[in-house]
Amino acid sequence: MNLTVAEENYIKSIYKLQDGQAVVSTNAIAYDLDTKPASVTDMAKKLKEKKLIDYEKYQGISLTPEGKRIAIQIVRRHRLWECFLVDKLSFSWDEVHEIAEELEHVRSEKLINRLSEFLGNPTTDPHGDPIPDAQGKFSKNKQLVSLDKATARRLEVAGVSDQSSSLLEFLNAKGIKLGTQIDVIERYEFDNSVEIKIRNQSAFTISEQVSKNIMVKIL
Amino acid sequence: MNLTVAEENYIKSIYKLQDGQAVVSTNAIAYDLDTKPASVTDMAKKLKEKKLIDYEKYQGISLTPEGKRIAIQIVRRHRLWECFLVDKLSFSWDEVHEIAEELEHVRSEKLINRLSEFLGNPTTDPHGDPIPDAQGKFSKNKQLVSLDKATARRLEVAGVSDQSSSLLEFLNAKGIKLGTQIDVIERYEFDNSVEIKIRNQSAFTISEQVSKNIMVKIL
DNA sequence: AATATTATTTAGATTTGTCTAAATTATATT
DNA sequence: AATATAATTTAGACAAATCTAAATAATATT
């Protein structure tokens, strides 16, 4: 199956948006890929032709098993490159996404498997997202919860669910990174903000919007 | 200047073919890029529009200073990635070209400069070709000569001028790699073949075609 | 249920990079 | 110099990926 970069981006987007949902809407994909719904319809026909998605007019889009397999390989490539950029080239986690977005389209199984080996076969990327292995299997992770729902006092940052530069920059500025231990000081009901404290720093408050996007492990 | 992958490939090809020549022909570019002369003419108009080449109908093509600057950056990216693949991911030098051909189009100065640093700012790639620095300057190399023209007895392989898989495979099979020391046993005038010997191996003969493409340093 | 709103698709156009076939220009040969 | 051959360009077409505007279908609201 030889896919264009555009086709790979659609597959990846559908995979990301599907997550649980039965189907993904034309509009959602268009928004995610910063394109127009009409373009999504066009591409849907092509991907259906290639048997990578199930698609009936007006009925939404979902990946076929083959489409999902391909999506997972793309995710694998993306996350391994992110590891490389952070671990080997000393990029910070909030600046690797765009570059990995390009590197992920270089298709060579040998390259990716060697890269994985070189990095020590990591199972999570710098954002805490799991990296599927060459067979597409995810190592089952400890259960992660978003910070706004975690009940424990002491938590460890294990990832972020929104990878927009704005959020990553904010976390960077606050000194929150993967593995950072956080103590929850107080939760404010009226706006669901959370006061937290990082070791050796004074406490500060983060909004619900932020806490919803921080994934944590309970310690 | 935002170039497409196709445009970059044309720039790179023109740079490679120009080397000394005043201009490059439409046909030569078409052959090098495995496309048709008509397509080259089409692209020439576009690149002229962008002021990356000098081009007048029927008069051949040459890079402008800006075109050359860009070409050298592409060459830098290509060769650094080749180093990475060989030095870090244990690829052999005859299998890296195609992959580097894709990686070279990922445009991020920061990425390339960090990669260079990570590799120890190498000045030659696994084929012995010089790697320009971030400013586009080549470190002046010891003068290399092709094996068919070298007069000395003892030589060291410093590169190959043709990087086709077929040649690289041949060299690999014969145990000839970068840094290999060669003794010239005999030169046969009638077909310009050369009998050579590698330490601890029995002598064998290589054709003019091969010897022309092996670049050597005199020891 | 009728109507308004939103989502989706179709139709037709555009851009990029390519092609083939025909026309033109340059170069080589007699 | 005339003619043959080779190189190059033009003209017109195509596929991929996109777009806008209009049409249609699904969903929500009154």
TrEMBL record, chains A, B:
<dbReference type="InterPro" id="IPR036390">
    <property type="entry name" value="WH_DNA-bd_sf"/>
</dbReference>
<feature type="domain" description="HTH dtxR-type">
    <location>
        <begin position="3"/>
        <end position="64"/>
    </location>
</feature>
<dbReference type="InterPro" id="IPR036421">
    <property type="entry name" value="Fe_dep_repressor_sf"/>
</dbReference>
<protein>
    <recommendedName>
        <fullName>Transcriptional regulator MntR</fullName>
    </recommendedName>
</protein>
<dbReference type="Pfam" id="PF04023">
    <property type="entry name" value="FeoA"/>
</dbReference>
<dbReference type="GO" id="GO:0003677">
    <property type="term" value="F:DNA binding"/>
</dbReference>
<comment type="similarity">
    <text>Belongs to the DtxR/MntR family.</text>
</comment>
<dbReference type="GO" id="GO:0046914">
    <property type="term" value="F:transition metal ion binding"/>
</dbReference>
<keyword id="KW-0805">Transcription regulation</keyword>
<keyword id="KW-0238">DNA-binding</keyword>
<dbReference type="InterPro" id="IPR038157">
    <property type="entry name" value="FeoA_core_dom"/>
</dbReference>
<dbReference type="GO" id="GO:0046983">
    <property type="term" value="F:protein dimerization activity"/>
</dbReference>
<dbReference type="Pfam" id="PF02742">
    <property type="entry name" value="Fe_dep_repr_C"/>
</dbReference>
<dbReference type="InterPro" id="IPR022689">
    <property type="entry name" value="Iron_dep_repressor"/>
</dbReference>
<dbReference type="GO" id="GO:0003700">
    <property type="term" value="F:DNA-binding transcription factor activity"/>
</dbReference>
<dbReference type="InterPro" id="IPR050536">
    <property type="entry name" value="DtxR_MntR_Metal-Reg"/>
</dbReference>
<dbReference type="Pfam" id="PF01325">
    <property type="entry name" value="Fe_dep_repress"/>
</dbReference>
<dbReference type="InterPro" id="IPR007167">
    <property type="entry name" value="Fe-transptr_FeoA-like"/>
</dbReference>
<dbReference type="InterPro" id="IPR036388">
    <property type="entry name" value="WH-like_DNA-bd_sf"/>
</dbReference>
<dbReference type="InterPro" id="IPR001367">
    <property type="entry name" value="Fe_dep_repressor"/>
</dbReference>
<comment type="function">
    <text>In the presence of manganese, represses expression of mntH and mntS. Up-regulates expression of mntP.</text>
</comment>
<dbReference type="InterPro" id="IPR022687">
    <property type="entry name" value="HTH_DTXR"/>
</dbReference>
<keyword id="KW-0804">Transcription</keyword>
